[in-house]
Amino acid sequence: MNKDRNFDDIARKFAKNIYGSAKGEIRQTIIWQDMEQILNKLDASSKKLTLLDAGGGLAQVSQRVAQRGHQVVLCDISSEMLELAKEDIKANKIDQQFTFIHSPLQNLTAHYDNPVDLVLFHAVMEWLENPKDVLQAVLEKVKPGGMASVMFYNHHGLVLKNVTCGNIPHILQGMPHRKRFKLQPPKGLYPHDVYQWIESAGFKIEGKSGIRCFSDYIGDQQYMGDYQFEDIVALEQQLCRTEPYLSLGRYIHVWAQKPLA
Q1: Given this model, what pLDDT does residue 45 score?
Q2: How crowded is residue 184: how many other Cβ atoms within 10 Å of its Cβ?
Q3: Distances in Å between the alpha carbon of 138 and those of 63, 99, 215, 216, 231?
Q4: Contacts of 169 (CB under 8 A, 6+ apart)
Q5: Which of 3.40.50.1980, 3.40.50.150, 3.20.20.190, 3.90.180.10 is the CATH number of 7-257?
Q6: Is the pTM of this model over 0.85?
């Protein structure tokens, strides 16, 4: 039985809590800085790219790419998430640049089998029963010289978050998933595993960023120094690509290129 998570039951709550929040704003800020580097590497200003947004949900990032004139194939297992994405994409008047596929990623080839210039695989693996296998299948869609942008829920960040919350027994028990937290992934991935999976697929890692390396670990502001939200964003931008902070992010974004030969 496939145990991959489908967000049909909480699509609108997911959209509000994940994307319509300060956490979502920090995530989008860091990711888009990285995307600028990726698009420059692909010479996106001089040619039209085809992008696969694998498990893309609301297509927050790929919509911004489409607004630059590129084509996007959006695939998601959740029909509700796809409908929300379609509404947003139509409102932004870029629906002619999107192809929508309602399917598990494991069946993507049956619907779309063309190579692409860029794959986005953001915050999907932590919800999958077999993340390594699906990642490898997605990476196979990238044409030679193309790139992959992969973001995953970080095991180390999950440990640190539980420490700051005082959940020490929970860590010692192996951090079993608490089903009452519907928007928290059931597991984090070890960064070294994901890097190895990407490299074993023949890709060269070009860069990494930690997503929310600091903001998730700040306690009650009543007992803290004075700061504004803009200060937190500036701190994240300043240090999110520097160790050891990078490896403590709640998520890690890594991008890699497939060699031409």
Answers
A1: 85
A2: 15
A3: 19, 17, 31, 30, 37
A4: none
A5: 3.40.50.150
A6: yes
